[in-house]
Every structure is written in C-alpha cells, then in structure tokens.
Here is the input.
Amino acid sequence: MGGPGDPPDGTPEGSPGGGEDEYRSVVFDESFVRAARLQEFSAQERMADHAPAVRRAPLRRGLSRQALILVLLIAVAFGTAIYMGVRHPYQTPASSGPPAEPLRMTVIPLAPQGKVPGATDPEYLYAHSPAAQFRIGAEGIPLPAARRTAHFSDSQVTNALSIAKDYIVRSALYPEVLTGEQIRPVRVLLDPDQLDQFDQSFGHPAADGRHAPTGWLVRFDASQTELADRRIRVQGTLQAAETDAATLEVTADHTFVYALRAAAAQARAAGEKAAEASLFTVRRELHFRFDREDLRLRQTQLVVSYVQAGPLSCAEDSTNRLHPLLAGQTAKEGGPAGTDPYATGGATALCGSLAAGSQPKV
Here is the structure.
C-alpha cells in the first residue's frame, strides 16, 4: 500500500523515488515566492493579436541635451560661414576672368661710343661706374610696403609683388638662365594662357614684338661670353596697383649690371691668358598682371617687356640671345643720340647708343 504522497497505483517501475525524489532537494521558501512577480494581462490586451508577450519599457523620445547642443552649434557655425561668404570683401568670383593677353615686347640694343672699357678686376669696374652703390643680386629688388586696395587684401598685394620679384630674379639673375642652359625656371611662373607664346618664342624666335626670347628673360651667347663675377649689381623699383575689381598690376623697373669676359674657349683660341672683364647693362621695365587665380597658383601674366641693353652692336641680332661687346671692342656702327640705361624714361628707337656717363671711367 502506497504512502500518502504515492500515486494510487504505486510508484512506477524504473523510478525508485518517483517524481517526488527528483524535486525533493528544491525548496521554494516564502522569500522566493514573494520575489516571483506574476503579471496578468488585461482582457483587452489578451484579445489583441499583436499584443506582445511581455511588457517592454517605453522608449525615451527626443534628443538628449548633449545632442541638442551639438546640433545647435553646427547650425550656428554653418550660418556664420554663409554670412562671411556673402559679406567678405575679398571673396573669389565664380569665373577666373578673361584669358591672358599676349606679351608685347621691345628689345633695344645700345651701341658703345668708342672702345668698351675693361679691367682685370670686376670690382674696380663696378667702383668706377654708376653701379657703385647698387646692391648685389636679389637684395637689389626689395619689396615695397604692401597696402590693401579696394578689392584686394594686404596679403594678396604682397603675394603679387613676391611673384613679380621671383620672376625677375629667375629671368635675370639665375646663372643657368643667363647662359641659356635653362628656361623652365621662368616658364613655370607664367599663366597657362601665355605658355604657347613662350614656347613658340624659343622654338621659332622672331623680331616681331611677340616672340623674342630676350623679351622674356636675359641670356647671353655662352659660346662667346661668360660671367666674370656672379655678384650681379641691381637697382630698381616695384609698384602694385589695382586696375579693376578682378585685376592687380605690378610694374617693375630695374637696371642690372653684369661683369662679363670672353668665354674661356674663345680666349684660349685667341691666345689670351686671362681676358679682361667689362660691364654690360640691361634696363628692364616689366608689367605683370594678376587675377585671383594667378595669385592662388603663384603665377603671373607678363603683358609688357621693354628692354635696353648694351654695349651691343646694332648689326647683331638680339632677338634670341644677347651678343655683348667685350673689353676693347667697338661697334661697327653707332645709333641715335646717346641713351642712358641708368636714367628713368627710355629711348624709343630700335637702336641707341650708350651715353658717355653710363660706362666705367677707367
């Protein structure tokens, strides 16, 4: 006969303790029962097909305070940027402006009056010439104080002056340019609209006022001439002005004085041990033009080049290279009234003659 908790038919076979033995070690005390919270859904919830099986905590709606502050800050910054873009007086226009004009150039050789003075010491020649007080190299091309214009800031005016100076230095002071070995240092500073004219000038030089290499830069006939002193004397001015709301123009007026002598190979051929040095003067007046794209890319448009150079022979072609008359040489023919390359203003003749006071007194 089974005990009080046994089934009526007794304990099943194969289960010695029955189901009671399996859960005999589990004790459901009063605290466990109280902790077990049962939730009964309402009738309306039980009738709904989409009712969830369990209740879920409601989602927090809206943005947190930190996210709201971040959104406000972004909105304020964006609005400020739009306002400054509309109100800024130096904003970049949508268009880059009209294409660059072709360079207009004039190269005037100046013939000596008599023999070209010479000396073994270039310093002696400089000291006895109008270039005695000139500065050496790029120091002779100081940048003036830059002042803002109606449509260009101080920094933009300074940038234009700096690019113009860079062009002058590369085109008249770089030894590799003066000897004709390189033209790239000058070419990379030009506006792309002028590159075809530049390349045609060096590929097919012509005395047409448009395609003379000596209008773009200074270079000598290296087969006949070499530098006797790399410390080239320079003096001149730079001026910037606004021509319209989209254009800055820089005018450069500089005089360069080079100490030259016959190339070593030529001197040896003539049986000379050491050729005397002589001075060669180049006066250049250059007009540069800049739009905002040129300023951004550090390039320029060279629109006017007016060059006087001597001592040269008017019979020599100065289109491609300059062929200086050296110490002791004379010109086969003279030019019109004397022209002083050290003085402001300039001759308009196709060939001039050097004023007596512009040569060293030796």
Observations:
- Residues 86-95 have pLDDT under 50 and may be disordered.
- Residues 65-87 form the longest helix (23 residues).
